[in-house]
From TrEMBL:
Alphabetized GO MF terms: glutathione transferase activity; peroxidase activity
Keywords (A to Z) from UniProt: Transferase
SUPFAM superfamilies given in the database record: GST C-terminal domain-like, Thioredoxin-like
Matching CDD domains: GST_C_GTT1_like, GST_N_GTT1_like
Protein's name according to its UniProt entry: glutathione transferase
Length: 223
């Protein structure tokens, strides 16, 4: 049976969602972040050398990276569902684009925002705190926040043109894009944008999404 190695509040939540959409049975192994560092526990390194989540095992296969996992699941278990037919149709090109954009372009500035916020609040000698805060604030105002506005404005405009990322049909690209939009709702004010907010409301209302929340446990980014 396919096993998902699931870390709380992580990208692996969308893997659970994809499996629920597909109706595939799976085993769930839970891992909790270190409450101090917020990193994955060392036990995950026994599953994959990078020690990160998501990771799935399916028979002899061990596969990491959420985009690769979702591609694999749709190809193996989808029976033509959740992706446009292979080829060069406009829907397929858009599908491939957003599947890669999610991690390649959307997530880096969100990660930098998280790092900058942690730098602002990091425990350090008192004489270093003003310097650290000034560096973090400069990073955010000069680069991170403008990048977030650029990317989420771009995504908002894309969702103004169609209901879903690949067109008018829900696909795995919407699953893949869910994590940057959910984290962006907390770190970049993305929920204030009407089309992004409507997209989040649509995905959160899906029965498979709700089942994934029940299986995966607390997931702060959905709130």
């Amino acid at each position: 049976m396919l096993t998902v190695h699931h870390l709380n509040n992580s990208r692996s939540q969308r893997v659970l969602w994809m499996l629920e959409e597909l109706g595939v049975e799976y085993e769930l192994k839970r891992y909790q972040r270190d409450p101090r560092t917020m990193l994955a526990p060392p036990e995950l390194r026994a599953v994959h050398p990078l020690g990160k989540s998501p990771v799935v095992t399916d028979g002899d296969l061990t596969l990491a990276e959420s985009g690769a996992i979702i591609d694999y699941l749709v190809e193996r278990y989808g029976d033509g569902r959740f992706s446009p037919p292979p080829g060069t149709s406009a829907e397929r090109v858009r599908y491939n684009y957003w599947m890669h954009y999610a991690e390649g372009s959307a997530m880096p500035p969100l990660l930098l925002k998280l790092v900058a916020r942690r730098l602002e609040s990091a425990k350090m000698p008192f004489f270093a705190r003003p310097i650290a805060r000034r560096i973090a604030q400069t990073m955010q105002s000069s680069f991170i926040d403008p990048q977030l506005r650029l990317h989420f404005g771009y995504i908002e405009a894309a969702l103004a043109k169609s209901t879903w990322f690949a067109g008018e049909t829900f696909s795995a690209a919407d699953v893949q894009m869910s994590f940057p939009l959910e984290t962006g709702g907390q770190r970049a004010g993305a929920k204030s944008m009407p089309h992004i907010r409507a997209f989040l409301e649509r995905i959160h209302a899906r029965p498979a999404y709700q089942r994934a929340l029940e299986r995966g446990g607390r997931y702060d980014f959905a709130t």
